[in-house]
Write a structure and sequence with these properties.
Blueprint (H helix, E strand, L loop, with lengths): L3 H34 L19 H15 L3 H43 L2 H15 L26
Length: 160
C-alpha cells in the first residue's frame, strides 16, 4: 500500500513542471514579441548594407565628419580611420551575405510554425499587423511566409 506522501510529492512535482513550462512559454513569447514582431528601434543587422551603423551613405559621411571634428582628427588620421571603416563595412557585408539566408530561413520557419498554431482569424490579424509594421512588403522578416498551414481540426482551411 502506498503512503499519501509519495502521491502528494508527485502532484507537487507535476505542478512545478507545469509552472516552469508556463514560465518558459511566457519568456519565449516576450522574446518573440521584442525581437521578431516588434524589433527595437535603431540599426538592425540587415541594415548594414546601407553603410556602417546602418545609415544611408550621406548620413554616414555626415557622421564621419562630425566624429572627425569632435575629436579634432588630423587629415592623416581621418584618412586612416575612413579606410578602416570602409574595410569594416566590406567585412560586414561579406558576413551578412553568408549569414542572412540562414537568418531568413530561421525566421520564416518560426513564422510558419506560429501560423500553424494560430486560428484563421488570428493569422489574418497577424498578417494585418505585419502589413502595418513592414509596409508594402506585407511580410514578416525572413521573406515570404510559405504555404498556408493546415487548418485546425474542425475549421475550414484558408483559401489557397
Amino acid at each position: 500500500m502506498t503512503s499519501p506522501q509519495p502521491l502528494a510529492r508527485g502532484r507537487m512535482v507535476a505542478a512545478l513542471v507545469l509552472f516552469l513550462v508556463a514560465v518558459a512559454g511566457g519568456l519565449t513569447a516576450v522574446v518573440l514579441d521584442r525581437f521578431v514582431l516588434r524589433p527595437p528601434p535603431g540599426p538592425r543587422f540587415h541594415d548594414f548594407g546601407r553603410g556602417p551603423g546602418g545609415r544611408p551613405p550621406e548620413r554616414e559621411r555626415a557622421a564621419r565628419d562630425h566624429f572627425a571634428k569632435e575629436l579634432g582628427l588630423s587629415p592623416e588620421q581621418r584618412v586612416r580611420i575612413d579606410s578602416l571603416m570602409d574595410r569594416q563595412l566590406k567585412e560586414i557585408r561579406a558576413v551578412r551575405e553568408q549569414v542572412q539566408p540562414r537568418l531568413d530561413s530561421i525566421v520564416g520557419q518560426t513564422r510558419r510554425e506560429i501560423d500553424a498554431i494560430l486560428t484563421p482569424e488570428q493569422r489574418k490579424k497577424a498578417q494585418e499587423l505585419a502589413q502595418r509594421r513592414f509596409g508594402d512588403r506585407g511580410e514578416w522578416p525572413g521573406g515570404p511566409m510559405g504555404p498556408p498551414p493546415p487548418p485546425h481540426e474542425g475549421e475550414p482551411g484558408p483559401p489557397r
